[in-house]
Design a protein that fits this description.
By secondary structure, this protein is mostly helical. It has 14 helices and 4 strands. It folds into 2 domains: 82 residues, DNA polymerase, domain 1, CATH 1.10.150; 159 residues, Intergrase catalytic core (hpI Integrase, Chain A), CATH 1.10.443.10. The chain starts with 15 loop residues before the first strand and ends with a helix.
């Protein structure tokens, strides 16, 4: 397959015909920018959709594509596709055709967060049924604030030393601590199954569990244990950790560091109460 030179430039006003090697060129461009594999996959998916719909890359077709996205997808997905296409046209040196992002009204409170009672209930069910793998998956997410993409990378030596170091773009380090009680119980389990090194969470084939597999298993638990599907997803346990942490500690700056938020403003949502929480507290407090 013939590769196009990266320094080739195109006119902003002239439509660029779609070619068979355009998508592979884009992937190469993203790899050279050292983007993560997840980002590369998402961006290539967006560009691939566009290239299947239109015969040329042009400003007019970009606007048509945005209209299509707005009609068929949620705002978050629309913005992801717009980011992918903006990056795609940058790789073609057509920066003047960039599309503006869709404004998303941020909520001032969290929804669909698993309650402490449901979390405790789920743990009891998993222990009763002998599912130690998912017992520790949800317990570690709920007690560390790890993202599911981070959890699947957890190593046995991380549990032994009590923390996991992660590195983001620019070699920025972030340390996630594993509470001593969780660490102690997890080490007993790992010793019982004779897991001395490597990844902590493996599937039946001996490979690391994937975020997708965890999401599917949690959906099964909603049917098996009668839990609300809207509150049983991987990020719900991260939210539970954050809400519990801010209520007990109150240090929003520390919480922002632990969660790995780029801005402390992102973390402020945990300071707000949902409508159902406000109603419950008002009913508890007001007696006059």
């Amino acid at each position: 397959m013939t590769m196009k030179k990266n320094d080739t430039k195109y006119s902003v006003t002239e439509p660029l015909p779609v070619t068979e090697h355009m998508l592979q060129d884009f992937r190469t461009y993203l790899e050279r920018r050292q983007m993560s594999e997840n980002t590369i996959t998402a961006y290539v998916r967006g560009a691939s959709q566009f290239l299947q719909m239109y015969s040329t890359v042009s400003h007019d077709n970009m606007k048509l594509y945005k209209c299509y996205l707005l009609e068929h997808y949620k705002p978050q997905t629309v913005n992801l596709r717009i980011r992918s296409m903006n990056c795609f046209i940058e790789s073609l040196h057509m920066e003047n055709s960039r599309m503006p992002m869709v404004h998303i009204q941020q909520k001032s409170f969290l929804e669909n967060v698993i309650s402490q009672a449901d979390y405790e209930y789920l743990k009891r069910c998993l222990l009763r049924d002998g599912d130690r793998l998912y017992y520790f998956i949800i317990r570690i997410m709920a007690t560390t604030g790890m993202r599911i993409s981070e959890l699947v990378l957890l190593q046995v030596h991380d549990v032994r030393r009590g923390y996991m170091d992660l590195y983001s773009k620019g070699n920025k380090a972030r340390r996630i601590y594993i509470p001593i009680l969780v660490r102690k119980d997890c080490l007993i389990w790992l010793n019982h199954i004779e897991r001395k090194d490597g990844f902590v969470f493996l599937n039946q084939a001996g490979s690391p569990v994937t975020p997708g597999a965890v999401r599917k298993r949690l959906k099964r638990f909603t049917l098996l244990y009668g839990l609300d599907p809207s509150v049983l997803h991987p990020h719900a346990f991260r939210h539970l950790f954050a809400k519990n942490f801010i209520e007990i500690c109150g240090d929003i700056s520390m919480l922002s560091d632990i969660l790995g938020h780029e801005s402390i403003e992102t973390t402020r949502i945990y300071l707000h109460r949902s409508p159902s929480e406000q109603k419950r507290l008002v009913n508890q407090i007001v007696n006059w």
